[in-house]
């Protein structure tokens, strides 16, 4: 038996650890694994792949990115806007299936976020034997308690806040850190809490500049002359729109980014306090996965192979919070998981006096 593995969407720490886990678990069963290069495109002629034998897996557990390459644009792209998707043409799905047959693949593991898993779902509906593994630093997939990559991104953002803390304090400045997460505030709220931010702005809770400035003024009053603000790239003021870094076309989702600079300039204007902004950007997606992500990737990869062995195609590996299970891909892509505005994370932040900007 021969299986294939594809990595799709934005990269993140842990993709290689999943590749390793899948290939090792498959080898254990006597199967061969082919790593498809360049995401699903690698299945089309001329097929582009590499054999994932034991030698090919050296060092993969700790290596960032994906040795297979990835894509979040191109002919397989299904996300056309916020919450909008398109159906892949039958001709493309048929060509993909032919590609798998040419390579002798009995099944495919698709590792990705909502875009890649939507592609996987459409492939499953077309009859392609496929299972999914949930990846994204945004942690915004509703069908799993956690996605891999998230913990590593939060670790990076927390480290950035720790570093900003000392310089903010030394200069008595406001430091604004913009983090990723698309339309979900998970990275912002978790890193904000872990890094001791004083203000956390998330897409789920539209903010008011008056509230942010009031929080800064209150800190001044109690003798704290610096403030750390964590802002999610998808945060927006009450009645305002998302700030986009460009790339809005009918064919692709908007690229968010830039809200940090807007917030910083408004704070400086309103409070007169020197304010600086740092956009963490793709640093959050680079480097080695954290211990927790390495474990999660290993559990997920092993489970994906198990699903294939059981013939449970059209399912995605999921973490329930206590165990690793699976759900239908249809469920995995049906809705995004955002931060509940009255949930435990927000409540804990408020209990500590952290401003959510509302
Ligand atoms: O979905 C992961 C993510 O890093 C988002 O947090 C971010 O908005 C987006 O991808 C950036 O995409 P790109 O790599 O195309 O700039």
Describe this structure in words.
The protein folds into two domains: 2-148 and 287-332, Rossmann fold, CATH 3.40.50; 154-285 and 340-351, Rossmann fold, CATH 3.40.50. The chain has 358 residues and is of the alpha/beta class. It contains ten helices and 15 strands. The radius of gyration is 21 Å and the shape is elongated. The strands form four sheets. It has a seven-stranded mixed sheet, sandwiched between helices. Strands 9-10-8-13 form a four-stranded parallel sheet, with helices on both faces. Strands 4-5 form a two-stranded antiparallel sheet. Helix 6 links the parallel strand 9 and strand 10. 6-O-phosphono-beta-D-fructofuranose (F6P) binds at residues 10, 72, 113, 136-138, 180-182, 233, 255-256, 285.
Summarize the structure.
The chain has ten helices and 15 strands. With about 350 residues, the chain is an alpha/beta fold.
Overall shape = elongated
Domains (count) = 2
Mind telling me the CATH class of the largest domain? Answer: Alpha Beta
- Please outline the major beta sheet: 7 strands, mixed
What is the CATH topology descriptor of the largest domain?
Answer: Rossmann fold
């Amino acid at each position: 038996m021969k299986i294939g593995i594809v990595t799709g969407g934005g990269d993140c720490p842990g993709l290689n650890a999943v590749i390793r886990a899948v290939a090792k678990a498959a080898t254990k069963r006597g199967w061969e694994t082919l790593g498809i290069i360049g995401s699903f495109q690698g299945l089309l002629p001329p097929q582009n792949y590499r054999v994932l034998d034991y030698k090919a897996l050296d060092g993969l557990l700790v290596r960032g990115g994906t040795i297979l390459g990835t894509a979040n644009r191109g002919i397989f792209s299904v996300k056309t806007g916020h919450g909008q998707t398109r159906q892949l043409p039958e001709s493309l799905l048929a060509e993909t299936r032919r590609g798998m047959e040419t390579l002798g693949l009995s099944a495919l593991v698709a590792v990705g976020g909502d875009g890649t898993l939507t592609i996987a779902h459409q492939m499953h509906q077309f009859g392609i034997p496929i299972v999914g593994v949930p990846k994204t630093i945004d942690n915004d997939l509703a069908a799993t308690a956690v996605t891999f990559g998230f913990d590593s991104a939060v670790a990076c953002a927390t480290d950035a806040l720790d570093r900003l803390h000392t310089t903010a304090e030394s200069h008595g400045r406001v430091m604004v850190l913009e983090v990723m997460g698309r339309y979900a505030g998970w990275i912002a709220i978790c890193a904000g809490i872990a890094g001791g931010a004083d203000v956390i702005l998330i897409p789920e809770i539209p903010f008011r500049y008056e509230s942010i400035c009031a929080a800064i003024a209150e800190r001044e009053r109690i003798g704290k002359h610096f403030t750390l603000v964590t802002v999610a790239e998808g945060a927006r003021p009450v009645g305002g729109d998302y700030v986009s870094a460009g790339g809005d076309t009918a064919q692709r989702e908007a690229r968010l980014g830039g809200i940090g600079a807007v917030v910083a300039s408004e704070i400086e204007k309103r409070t007169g306090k020197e304010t600086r902004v740092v956009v963490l950007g793709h640093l959050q997606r680079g480097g080695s996965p954290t211990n927790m992500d390495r474990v999660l990737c290993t559990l997920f990869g092993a489970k994906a192979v198990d699903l294939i062995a059981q013939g449970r195609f059209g399912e995605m590996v999921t973490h329930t919070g206590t165990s690793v299970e699976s759900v239908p891909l249809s469920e995995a892509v049906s809705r995004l998981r955002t931060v509940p505005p009255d949930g435990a994370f927000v409540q804990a932040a408020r209990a500590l006096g952290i401003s959510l900007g509302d």
